[in-house]
Design brief:
Structural class of chain B: alpha/beta
Oligomer: heterodimer
Number of helices of chain B: 9
Strand order of the largest sheet of chain A: 7-8-9-3-10-11
Largest sheet of chain A: 6 strands, mixed
Number of strands of chain B: 10
Strand content of chain A: 15-25%
Radius of gyration of chain B: 18 Å
CATH superfamily of chain B: P-loop containing nucleotide triphosphate hydrolases
Distance between the termini of chain B: 43 Å
Chain lengths: 276, 246
């Protein structure tokens, strides 16, 4: 099993008290592609960050088990973590506008990522970078490599992020809202690209998103999170038969093109969900 | 109510809006969809008077809008922006944010107007003396809508008003917008890349591609799939495909 999370809890310390963010999240990634869905603030991004132990200093992680390919992450040293972060587990973030360096051209950024993991000369790295850009289906990789992030579109920027992440040949890919800053058409293209790369390279994929139907298209299992807890975990194909009112509410409150309604049902949050 | 004829907008030598025309009746809503870079927000900004380098004709209520808008224009036409995290001044209280426009226009009864505006968008009066960071994303977007409504406008220009929000909050804001339209007989122009949102709120939809409005159709036709341009068909297919859970 590539990733195994059992009963993960994340808590933040402020001046006087501890505030629990992730409360008992369990998730495992073997042959299946899991997805984590939820709205803003239920701790889905934190779960992804906990896997790389990239949480602020005032956060404490406890878990019955938190392992990556058999390595116990809770006990892992910073040196061991550096072997995992970026190298064995790649990360794609939400908005390429903020994750790319605005004053460095794209070729150099991708080359830098490649050199950090593989070494080699600058010229080799640049060639490798162009090859990587080609792999994410950028049609004119040389031209794109010479341009700066503000000169390319959002979809192109996200492709560049993916190319950087591919440099060390990671085994696991954590995609945290990889398409929410993009248009519908580009969204589908990027997700298709991720899916192709994942199956070509035999990588594991954890997709984190707020978009339930979207996740259900690209994942096998979906964990629905609300306020730091997993409300429901179900097969993507059984989403329509979701039992939890939160999952149903999320599906229901979206406007639909094919089923028009005068008013949209509003999600009523129930305090008892957090104690159940 | 709104007539746009042969609107052309260029930045430098690049023409980003290439002769767009449409008209909207009072109390109706017109939706503009398209990918990013297709020029949809640019049209809206030109209509709001935020961009003065356009050619063609933009008229509100039969009156052509001057390049430099007179102050009275902004009491009739107001805009709501995409990101409520960026469109509210972080160091001003909600009270200050809402009182800005009435002060500028020398309106009376500012206190009453603010109380009314907050209740119109279903915000608690307690929110009045909070700062934007103390409110949630949905509440902030309500403040942005309240700020637009305080001028008692006839037209609201909505630039992706829900795309920065969670789906459940999006539902609340969409309901609020349709209630307000009914109560005040407002005319909306809504820009979004989400076809489902557009079709929910608007009767008539224009599809943008590379600065041209390639098709105008009614929301019913869009729902039924009676599209004539290939780009509309493609957008619709993608939207329907991703809408249904697998």
């Amino acid at each position: 099993m590539l990733v195994d999370i059992q009963n993960l809890r994340i808590a933040f310390e402020n001046r006087s008290s501890w505030f629990g963010a992730g409360r008992g999240v369990s998730l495992s990634l073997g042959a299946e592609k899991p997805g984590i869905v939820g709205e803003r603030g239920p701790g889905k991004g934190l779960t992804g960050r906990a896997l790389r132990k990239l949480l602020p200093a005032n956060a404490a992680i406890t878990a019955d088990r938190l392992s990556f390919d058999g390595i116990d992450l809770l006990a892992a040293s910073e040196k061991q973590m550096r072997q995992i972060r970026g190298k064995r587990a790649g990360f794609i973030l939400q908005d390429p506008k903020y994750s790319l360096n605005p004053v460095m051209n794209i070729g150099r950024q991708v080359a830098e990522a490649w050199r950090a993991h593989k070494g080699g000369s600058k010229r080799q790295a640049l060639e490798a970078a162009i090859h990587l850009l080609d792999q994410v289906k950028i049609r004119n990789p040389r031209e794109v490599a010479a341009s700066y992030p503000h000169e390319v579109s959002g979809g192109m920027g996200q492709r560049v992020m993916i190319a950087m992440m591919l440099a060390p040949d990671p085994e696991l890919l954590i995609a945290d809202e990889p398409t929410s800053a993009l248009d519908a058409t580009v969204q589908a293209e990027i997700l298709r690209l991720i899916e192709e790369l994942v199956s070509e390279r035999n990588m594991g994929l954890i997709l984190i998103s707020h978009d339930l139907p979207l996740v259900s298209h690209f994942c096998d299992r979906v964990a629905v999170m609300y306020s730091g807890r997993v409300m429901e975990e179900l097969k993507a194909s059984e989403l329509l038969n979701a039992r939890h009112p939160y999952t149903k509410g999320l599906l229901n409150c979206m406007p639909s093109l094919t089923h028009p309604r005068d008013r949209l049902p509003v999600l009523n949050r129930d305090a008892s969900w957090l104690t159940a | 109510m709104i007539d746009v004829e042969n609107l052309r907008i260029r930045f430098g030598d690049r023409e980003v809006v290439k002769g767009v025309s449409f008209s909207v009746k009072k109390g109706d809503s017109f939706g503009i969809v398209g990918e990013s870079g297709s020029g949809k927000s640019t049209i809206l900004r030109a209509m709001a008077g935020l961009n003065e380098s356009w050619e063609g004709r933009i008229a509100f209520g039969g009156e052509p809008a001057a390049l430099k808008r007179p102050p009275g224009f902004f009491r009739r036409v107001q805009m709501v922006f995409q990101d409520p995290y960026g469109s509210l001044h972080p160091r001003q209280t909600i009270d200050r944010i809402l009182s800005e426009l009435p002060l500028v226009h020398g309106m009376d009864n500012i206190d009453k107007r603010i109380v009314q505006a907050l209740s119109d968008v279903a915000l608690p009066q307690a929110a009045r003396f909070r700062f934007p960071h103390q409110l949630s994303g949905g509440q902030r977007q309500r403040v942005a809508i309240a700020r637009a409504l305080i001028a008692d406008p006839q037209v609201l220009l909505l630039d992706e008003p829900t795309s920065a929000l969670d789906v459940s909050v999006q539902a609340e804001i969409l309901n609020l917008l349709s209630d307000l339209r009914e109560a005040r007989n407002l005319t909306y122009i809504l820009v979004s890349h989400n076809l489902a949102v557009i079709a929910h709120l608007c009767g008539q939809v224009g599809v943008m591609l590379n600065g041209e409005m390639v098709e105008q159709l009614s929301a019913q036709d869009l729902r039924a799939g009676k599209t004539s341009h290939a780009h509309t068909t493609e957008l619709r297919m993608l939207s329907v495909g991703l809408e249904e859970p697998a």
